Amino acid sequence: MSNALLIGAMLAGGVLAGPILAVSQSAPMPGEVVVVAVPPWAPSPEDLVARAGGHMVGPERTAVAALAVSEDPAFPDTLRGLGAWLVLDGRSLANICGV
Description:
By secondary structure, the chain is of the alpha+beta class. It is built from 4 helices and 4 strands; from the N terminus they run H-E-H-E-E-H-E-H. Strand 2 (55-56) and strand 3 (65-69) form a beta hairpin.
């Protein structure tokens, strides 16, 4: 049983590695939507986005992630400096999700 789980985990990791690497390596462009993920103990994504000089996009949010946009080229770095775990290119993620 444990071998089957290990093989399944390895297959799942192999299948997911490409899309994850593609999204994580895409640099967000100024004025484009980004996905902001924060740790559960950090301020809300809305708070970090506002402090970084951006604004929220769309009606859907979670406690730890949201979509945001800013014209400031330093926006992704500012978000990371304020404690965001991930700042990903929203367009790349949307393409992978088929949106």
